[in-house]
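Reviewer 2 asked us to include a model.

Predict the structure of this chain.
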Amino acid sequence: MDLSLLKKILFLDFLFFYFCVLRAQKCPSPGAMPVALWRAGLLLCFLSFCAGLEEECVLGVLGRPVILPCLYPKLLSFVNFTIEWRRGDEVVLRSVWELNKKVEELSVNSATISSDAAMTGNFSLEMPTVDLQEYKMNYSLFIISEEDHKAALCTACLMLAASFSSPLLQREEAAHGGETAFLCHSTGGFPEPAVHWLINHTEEPPEGSVRTQAASLPDSHLYNITSHLMVNISKDSIVSCTIENLPMNETMTSTSYGTQGSPVAGRASEAMWIFSTALSAVVGVMVVAGVAYQIHLDRISKRKKKEFQASTRGYKRRYPNTEESEAITTQSMETDV
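Predicted model (structure tokens):
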């Protein structure tokens, strides 16, 4: 029986028993009212239990493979049969089995089932990719036996989602103490996300200060989300924008730290300044030391050069005719030869 029809019947029964409870208050019988209350409470619990029987949808990420589960071991006793996976009234996959072997398979968008499904009872539908046309669609598996008997074996709901980009937060400071404008933008996700603003990590913006727009892209049906915040705050206030995609269980936040900057960024900047100052000092000391050492080497070189020149002049003064006599001796030796 359809679950929604069952709920309607139970609701009518609940109304009937509730009417009985009201009548029991006027009933002189001392045991009528407790019995009616017990029945009404039991029915209410049963109705709540049935509400929890809502089928859970399989989450498919846009552009990625997805599997719709279906385990039906009773088909292990069948020899020749045909199964169909349907999306509404459309046949997505039709598979013919003979002697527990798949002999034919026709599918849409490359959907398939395991080749040993008849041996394992796992007739889960595998789709290599999904698109937004299949959002919140019900898929059902039917069997067509030799007696042309059709019965729904499994039903699965497919819900789609896609991740948004990291939010881009822009800040426009107000002039002369007016309101400050913030713009938070994120693209390419599904379904439409929730947008949250916080001021100084804890305060929510005043009512009416936030305006959010979601635009559906015509080609892909994905969403671009843009949220505006206009608020009168100080320049040092910290403002954050959060994009929450509930089906994907994703939460992405972007933060504007005002004129003082991020505490982490401030500490990092201070550490970088100290490091650069120390490095400049070390480099300066090394340069001064190098220049001083080079000057010292130049002085030593000049002193040695002067000493060498002085020693050479003294040698010439002591033996002025030595070079001339050596030249004459050499010439005479050549003549004798």
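The mean pLDDT is 76. The longest helix spans residues 263-318. We have added this to the supplementary material.
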